[in-house]
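Hi R.,

As promised on Friday, here is the backbone we talked about, encoded as structure tokens. Could you run it through your design pipeline when you get a chance and send me back a sequence?
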């Protein structure tokens, strides 16, 4: 059993150790990829791996927990130990990480709570979650013979709040449930953030997050520690080696040699955790969202991050630059050639069947009938889509219609015809509608997509984090009453109920089925460059969103999601683009802008 301490230096069994770490998120890749990713981290010259633990992934529905498959944190940490890596865990209830709602579960929005605070309603939920999660982590601690050397109390809290009692209560909960390795906080390396976000007065270790100007940032951290009479080692908990990307914006890149020079400088000053070492993928509906003024700017499915390994796990040129830099500063480290990936095209296949969502809504979903509209969180899990259907009286002349206070992106159909797509600046715009001459009622359908909740900054507690229709629908100048709500999560249960013999209508949101057989499997990408907007589901597994806006026009498909023999891919297309074929490709399709 090893012993890890934080004194003037990090000590492992009483001997000084420099932590050279990399971030690998077990939940952004398949379990079959873990070993190669962890091995490549060690081959880089690292001795530690770091990962967040997202609350919303492990408790997606209140009281329903999932730690299987890609969510098996215990298996991931155990594998890291087998490969000889130490582990830093960040089980804080908020993680940011460009992850949906910063890791907070959507069901928290069903009631009014002050998140990340001593609000007793919030802390009661934290206690319940920790009572399930932390006992799983206790045996993994270095104090119990495991590889975990440190755990995080809260993440970048100084960029959000300053309530020290909240931090204390979180720390006390962790200790109550058996966490006895050193605890830490991580914040931006400037005085205001460190002052607000740390528990230095209670001996909780202080780390910083930055990706350049190491000397300047380290000087700020040292001064802050000295002010509190601490002489701790310096640790950059997130040394940003790339950056995340948003829809409709160019891919962000960082020069490999420039990063290597910065890493070299940081290693002469202290320890670091490369964020990210391997970014992976925001599978399903778990991508996060940035906030810029009144706008929410959702992030893309790929979390490639321009990291040292690509989204699919392939070593980049940046990997070798950093590997050489580590060797220069720490010549004694073990290094090796990294493992490489094999990719395949796997062919092109025609669409087998298609059907309109509006034709089968009552078959695949059970509607909830209410007088006023429910939000997504009230009507279902809060992820994916929600369809609102209403019958509005037909006055046989042009009438006003307006959806009030809704998010994020709306498709509005009048008698099955697309009336408008509203998003960002156009949300809530008034429109004029006409019913059909021969009918007494106008059939209104509004499909709303949750594009991802804000994961960082001032909007974390904003009412706009609740998705769907929050206000109502105005017909003429009054609020309409009487709605059917369909929560569309694209679950395996819903997909199995699709009847492809029902009406097809490519102008409406539609399901496209592709059935094909494979003799060999390989990692691959699905070319979405001719699609509009939607998601791709491979053998029941949601790969994530595609969007014509770019900057990436493909989705990464790990070989583990495919089968030898029969396969089924379902594409849910919302923007009226008729899909005729599925094309596999060897590399991601990236905008050339």
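Update: got your reply. Pasting your designed sequence below so it's all in one thread:
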């Amino acid at each position: 059993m090893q012993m890890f301490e934080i004194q003037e230096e990090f000590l492992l069994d009483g001997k000084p150790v420099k932590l050279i770490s990399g971030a690998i998120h077990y939940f952004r890749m398949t379990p079959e990829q873990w070993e190669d990713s962890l091995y490549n981290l060690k081959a880089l010259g690292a001795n530690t791996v770091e990962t967040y633990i997202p609350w919303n992934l492990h408790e997606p529905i209140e009281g329903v927990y999932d730690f299987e498959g890609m969510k098996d944190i215990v298996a991931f940490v155990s594998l890291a130990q087998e490969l000889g890596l130490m582990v830093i865990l960040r089980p804080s209830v908020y993680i940011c990480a460009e992850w949906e709602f910063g890791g907070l579960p959507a069901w928290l929005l069903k009631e009014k709570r002050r998140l990340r605070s001593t609000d007793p309603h919030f802390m009661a939920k934290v206690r319940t979650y920790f009572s399930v999660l932390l006992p799983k982590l206790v045996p993994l601690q270095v104090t119990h013979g495991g590889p975990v050397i440190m755990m995080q109390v809260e993440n970048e809290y100084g960029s959000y709040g300053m309530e020290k009692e909240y931090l204390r209560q979180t720390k006390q909960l962790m200790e109550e449930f058996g966490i006895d390795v050193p605890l830490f906080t991580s914040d931006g390396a400037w005085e205001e953030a460190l002052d607000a976000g740390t528990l230095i007065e209670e001996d909780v270790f202080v780390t910083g997050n930055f990706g350049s100007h190491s000397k300047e940032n380290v000087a700020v951290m040292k001064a802050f520690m000295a002010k509190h009479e601490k002489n701790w080692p310096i640790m950059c908990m997130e040394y940003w080696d790339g950056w995340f990307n948003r829809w409709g914006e160019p891919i962000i890149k960082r020069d490999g040699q420039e990063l290597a020079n910065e890493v070299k400088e940081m290693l002469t000053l202290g320890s670091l955790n490369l964020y990210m070492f391997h970014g992976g993928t925001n599978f399903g509906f778990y991508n996060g969202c940035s906030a810029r003024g009144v706008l929410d700017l959702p992030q893309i499915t790929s979390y490639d991050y321009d990291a040292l390994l690509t989204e699919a796990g392939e070593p980049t040129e940046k990997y070798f630059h950093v590997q050489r830099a580590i060797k220069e500063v720490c010549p004694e480290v073990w290094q090796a050639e990294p493992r490489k990936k094999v990719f395949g095209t796997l062919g092109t296949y025609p669409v087998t069947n298609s059907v309109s969502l509006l034709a089968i809504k009552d078959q695949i979903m059970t509607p909830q009938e209410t007088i006023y509209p429910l939000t997504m969180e009230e009507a279902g899990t809060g992820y994916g889509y929600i369809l609102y259907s209403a019958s509005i009286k037909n006055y046989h002349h042009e009438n006003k219609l307006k959806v009030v206070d809704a998010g994020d992106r709306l498709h509005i159909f009048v008698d099955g015809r697309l009336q408008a797509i509203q998003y960002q600046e156009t949300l809530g715009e008034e429109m004029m509608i006409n019913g059909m001459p021969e009918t007494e009622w106008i059939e209104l359908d509004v499909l709303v997509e949750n594009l991802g909740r804000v994961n960082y900054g001032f909007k974390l507690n904003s009412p706009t984090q609740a998705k769907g229709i929050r206000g109502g629908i105005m017909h003429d100048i009054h609020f309409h009453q009487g709605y059917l709500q369909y929560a569309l999560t694209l679950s395996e249960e819903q997909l199995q109920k699709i009847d492809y013999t029902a009406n097809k209508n490519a102008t409406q949101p539609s399901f496209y089925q592709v059935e094909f057989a494979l003799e060999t499997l390989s990692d691959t990408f699905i070319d979405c460059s001719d699609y509009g907007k939607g998601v791709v589901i491979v053998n029941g597994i949601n790969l994530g969103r595609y969007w014509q806006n770019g900057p990436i026009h493909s989705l990464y498909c790990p070989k583990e999601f495919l089968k030898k023999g029969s396969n089924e891919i379902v594409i849910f297309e919302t923007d009226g683009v008729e899909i005729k074929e599925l094309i596999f490709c060897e590399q991601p399709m990236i905008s050339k802008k």
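One thing I noticed while checking it: The mean pLDDT is 97.

Thanks again,
M.
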